[in-house]
User: What shape does this take?
Amino acid sequence: MELILENIVKNYGDKKVLQNAGFTFEKGKIYGLLGRNGAGKTTLFNSLSGETKLDGGKAYIKEHDTLRELQEDDIGYVYSLPILPEFLTGYEFVKFFMDINRSKIQPDQQIDDYFEIMKITTEDRHRLIKNYSHGMKNKIQMLLFLITKPPVILLDEPLTSFDVIVALEMKILLRTMKKDHILIFSTHILQLASDLCDELVILNKGQLSSVPRELLGSPEFEQSVIDLLKDEPEGEGRADASNA
Ligand SMILES: Nc1ncnc2c1ncn2[C@@H]1O[C@H](COP(=O)(O)OP(=O)(O)OP(=O)(O)O)[C@@H](O)[C@H]1O
Assistant: This one.
């Protein structure tokens, strides 16, 4: 399965944010999306999830040689600031979510199985969401996608809200999930990106480009990414980014 972006354009008034951005993302990989503040990472995620209308271009899902337009249902979106019903307990909310998505769930999957996978304790399951930490809310959002299994999962700065232990748990979870999904997460943490991602994608000047794989984990990695993100035109010593 592939997510294919073609000539994606998004403007806010006179501000051109995404300018003919194109890229092909593949199932089985974790992609890190890097870009400077205001580069348009959230705008790209909002556009793909249908929250914001695109001004141009198309997004497709390609599966078994069949191409179709991306639909809202294809996307699971883990927001950096999750919006959840605070008046319910985690358990009540997940139960409700399972009820309305009954057709997508394997019959042998029990609600507690999902909480176990997400390592949410029995006590926490029955607490009101309004008392959850930011990281706990992110965990609940990720749990929802274990239920509905959308082909594409977008995570906006997800791991920054987790403590080191939970971040490690989440990394393991993302690595197990990647075989069934296209996972794209935005981050400013270069170490996390090089550690977790199979591919790094740079969003700069409204366009997407991939960081050469051989740079991941190399001693020049950090400096090369900084060079790629700088506004200056291509100069000596600058790493080569290949447009997909
Ligand atoms: N609803 C909006 N109306 C007008 N301008 C917007 C809107 N949303 C975003 N922008 C502008 O679009 C640009 C891209 O914003 P966006 O939030 O997508 O960037 P980002 O890469 O996610 O940034 P950060 O890393 O700081 O979260 C910014 O200049 C921002 O001010």
About this structure: Residues 134-148 form the longest helix (15 residues). The beta strands are 2-12, 15-26, 30-34, 56-63, 66-69, 75-78, 152-156, 182-186, 199-204, 207-210. The chain has one domain: 2-229.
